[in-house]
Design goal:
Four copies of one chain form a homotetramer. Chain A is mainly alpha-helical. In chain A, 69% of the residues lie in helices and 0% in strands.
Amino acid sequence: MSVAALPAESPRPRPRASRDAGRNQASILAAATQEFSRYGLGGARVDRIATRARTNKRMLYYYFGNKETLFLAVLEATYARIRAAEKELSLLDAAPVEGVRRLIEFTWNYYLAHPEFLTLLNSENLHRARHLKRSREVRAMNSPLIETLAEVLARGRRRGEFRSGVDALQLYISIAALSYFYLGNNHTLSAVFGRDLASAEARRERLAHMTEVILGYLRPARPASIDARRSARP
Amino acid sequence: MSVAALPAESPRPRPRASRDAGRNQASILAAATQEFSRYGLGGARVDRIATRARTNKRMLYYYFGNKETLFLAVLEATYARIRAAEKELSLLDAAPVEGVRRLIEFTWNYYLAHPEFLTLLNSENLHRARHLKRSREVRAMNSPLIETLAEVLARGRRRGEFRSGVDALQLYISIAALSYFYLGNNHTLSAVFGRDLASAEARRERLAHMTEVILGYLRPARPASIDARRSARP
Amino acid sequence: MSVAALPAESPRPRPRASRDAGRNQASILAAATQEFSRYGLGGARVDRIATRARTNKRMLYYYFGNKETLFLAVLEATYARIRAAEKELSLLDAAPVEGVRRLIEFTWNYYLAHPEFLTLLNSENLHRARHLKRSREVRAMNSPLIETLAEVLARGRRRGEFRSGVDALQLYISIAALSYFYLGNNHTLSAVFGRDLASAEARRERLAHMTEVILGYLRPARPASIDARRSARP
Amino acid sequence: MSVAALPAESPRPRPRASRDAGRNQASILAAATQEFSRYGLGGARVDRIATRARTNKRMLYYYFGNKETLFLAVLEATYARIRAAEKELSLLDAAPVEGVRRLIEFTWNYYLAHPEFLTLLNSENLHRARHLKRSREVRAMNSPLIETLAEVLARGRRRGEFRSGVDALQLYISIAALSYFYLGNNHTLSAVFGRDLASAEARRERLAHMTEVILGYLRPARPASIDARRSARP
DNA sequence: TATGAATGAGAATTCATTCAT
DNA sequence: TATGAATGAATTCTCATTCAT
């Protein structure tokens, strides 16, 4: 389905008129990513996408069939990018605590640098993942980080630095959650709390806080003292 | 179209056309809340709202001016509801640990029972809080919980149950984040991870995890050891 | 039909709720005059009229039936006003040349002070006098000036100051035309010629010019020669 | 809907939908001219324009953006036509008196043949030349006649046939005014005066009157000179 | 491949007018 | 008289999509 895969699969010789089909597709995709992430699926305009891609609407339909399929292609490409970035992360190179910290920072920085990821996901959730569910590709693109994180947690636990019983998926979700909510809801939070949560200072504080929360949570229980968790679960 | 067709809730005989302005306004608001939360601002249809409210489009403009203002009214009412619910919470009645646990559960349960809150916020963020920024009302409706939470944290710390140096707003945001992300992105997360995160079992696990994360983080450092925060921030 | 006549004809006792029916009608009429003259019949808004009249739409329908009838009432009142003003003019008190000059100045000043007269007439002409044709009242309100002007012309001719063969109606129309066109098309003329025709200076010049045109035309032919017009129109 | 339904003017076989952009634009413009001139800007209906142009509403927006811009396009085309017609006039070919007479007749006949010019101007004035002010085109289309008329006046004066001190622009406006008012207000004038001012007879009289007014005004004052009117009408 | 032109269905919004009290 | 509420029928404008070349 994904159009991103098309170029590689079409080795057929290009006809004379073609300037650069791949480039056109890519620029449509880039324009669509911007448009969808800024306006959502419902608010996006095919016209604007074509204009921004410096092509015409017809091309858009030629390559992508229709608006929804284009939206899916955008989602797939967006997921592909974050997965690719995650692959660059080497959490196992460092000590466990450091590995977790890296993951937190990576997540934070990625969201910060790729705000379209947040809004596209929001849009797709509004549509109950209707598009993603149709996509084999994305389902196959399971994050490689879950397993790596599980390994980090295991090591840390063996070294007595982490508590036991931590589910890697839950933790992964929590780490994502802490950044996602803050950055994705930045506008409303700022409006409601009357503070500028997007300032450099505020961001530094947020990153520090999130790190403390996760690492604080992962600390093993105090050997001799009363286990906080025991009292928490009577 | 006439409200006269409505069921028995209105004992007094009703004329052909309803003259109960308040009721009409309320039902438009309710219908709009549904529509906007399901389809977003761009995807919402004024026609559907009118139909669902058992009135006609014209009344919607009569009372609310236009679609955007109606959207703002929906946002304001939605905020008013969660703030009202928060007021019912008595975090200070119980021990600090219990207070925090209550807040976590309240947040989780509220989002679960009011999924429209999540999607409406997402929509508003897509629009960069354009509507909320115009609303005095909402800005005045600062959450009462921040201060209460600060008090809970202070007490807990005095009792040696919580660590020091915790910012109440950051913690409040984090607590919200953990629920928000999971519930709001339920569809995509389920699609991507190939698990049903909406099952009762999965939800129970999630609530437990979140509670552990927050309370685990709040545990004070081991009395004799170096403060965790210092080691966290070299 | 004219509502302006209503108060006088309804001596019946006013019911308790009445504040001042006449005043209400008058203020609706005044508001409608403004609205119709500014936006034309098609562009006028019943809502705005009601608001401007500080009453509600229902009253407007109560008194005037509908928008078109209201428009007619406005026309009638407008005509009544100019006819009343014309009656104040005493062209026969002065010498003929002075009388004509007075008429020119009166026309000019009236149009200047009552721009609504021009635009309302334009609107009514757009509608091919559909409303006026229905109005007995207006047809009965023939300008008293035509006959007076005829008398002025006759006197002037007898005194050798005016040429003969001048049709009073044609002259009346021409005098109106010279002011009407300039003032009524002020905006487009200014735009097209790139001059401000509405300045005090420009207006003074225009009035002088118009007076010269009319009086220049009325000059008799040279005493010694045969009057060309006499031979032209036996 | 399809232009294919049109008569035989198009010899070559036509596909179902017209691809002749220019023709479509022109027919929209023609239809709009009719509609706007008959109903004014406010009263004009986009739907009717599309129907009359044998196209669909969408094309109208495709080519002209919106109703107001279309209105401006109509104005511009209308001005362009009268300016073009004015260029055909050769006032300097004849004797001065004859030149002025030609201008009067041209104006009269043009307004008679193009009543839309009058109503469109009235509409634009109702809107305070809002559209024309935005139009470079029209401002650049200053009438070529003003200067020609000035030249005619100068010549006539040199020949002792015209008075001195006549401003060409003022005279041009006056000539236009005399026709414009009579023809443009034909309906109301006829209604008010109870005469049919549109009859051939009435029109002949009007033209004669206007000519007399202007030429009568232009006569030089000097008693001892050649009778301007005799030489003017051989 | 590429592109301007075309379109039907539908979207938000407006309007004059009437109802019920 | 007076008024807020209600309404159906338009009205302008938009949109995704397709046609013809």
